[in-house]
Structures are given as C-alpha cells and as structure tokens.
Amino acid sequence: MRSNFIRTVAITGLAAGGLFASAATATAAPASAVAAPSASPVGISAAPSCVYLYQTDYIRDGQYRSLANARNDCGYTIRTRMIWVGTTDGACFSLAPGDSHGESKPGTRPYVSELRDC
After folding, report:
1. Does residue 23 have a pLDDT over 50?
2. Given CB 3.0 to 4.6 Å as the disulfide criterion, which of 21, 28, 29, 80 pairs with 47?
3. Residue 36, Cα to own-chain centre: how many angstroms?
4. pLDDT > 50? residue 27
5. For 87, how many CA atoms within 13 A lie in the half-sphere containing its CB?
6. What's the rounded mean pLDDT across residues 57-64?
C-alpha cells in the first residue's frame, strides 16, 4: 500500500566529493533517509557549487513522479547533467546565469544524487 508521502529535498553546494548540505521535509509520513552520493569517478567532475538543485515528489493524474530542478546561480553559463539513482541519467544541458532546467521521472524512489559537468 502506498502512503501519501511526498519528499522534498533541496541540495546546495554540490562538489566533486558529494553534498555539503541538504534538507528534507515530508508532508504526510516520516521522511526516509536519502543516501548520500558517492564521490564522482576519477576524471569526472561535479557541477560548480553555485548550481542549486531542488527535488520534490508530486502526484499527476494519480501517478507519483519525482521532479528535479537545477538553477544556475553562477555568473557564467554551465553545461551539466543530472545523475539519477533508481532510473536513467539525464542528458547534458546548458544553463545561462539565472536559468533553470527540470526533469521528472515516474515513481517516488528516483532522486538526483549529483550534477556532473559534461
């Protein structure tokens, strides 16, 4: 039986070693632990720490979905991709300063563990 759990996670300060800070809130059920990402493989670098990642789960047409939005708070254009846990990774995309990019996946289990340069 599915609960009405809706997970909301905001991640800031992504770096090559993983997360510096994260916060999680739940609207109806206790929050389950979100595993911290492992370090990026050698030769692959994470997006700069001035990129903000916001994640939440929602229901659309009776189906649960996980949504991740990346916002570029840097003073320059970046090129990155979302590395998802529990589903396929996102494609590379460019973000000008102040722009955002969102991706959604079916279910409440997938989440973005890191943003990688590409």
Report:
1. no
2. 80
3. 12
4. no
5. 18
6. 92
DSSP 42-104: TT--BPPTTEEEEEEEEEETTEEEEEEEEEE-SSS-EEEEEEEESSPPPPPEEE-TT-EEEEE
Pair of tokens at residue 10: 């905001």
Q: What angle do CA 41, 114, 59 make, to 5 degrees?
A: 145
Q: How confident is the model at residue 108 (pLDDT cuts 50, 70, 90)?
A: confident
**3-class DSSP assignment, residue 9:** strand
CA–CA distances in Å: residue 104 to residues 21, 60, 72, 75, 90: 22, 11, 18, 26, 10
Distance CA 26, CA 53 (A): 17
β-bridge partners, 27? none
Residue appearing with tokens 């994470």: 46
| Token pair recorded at residue 74 | 């840097």
Rounded distance, CA 48 to CA 56, Å? 22
pLDDT above 90 covers a percentage of the chain that reads: 57
Amino acid 55 reads Q
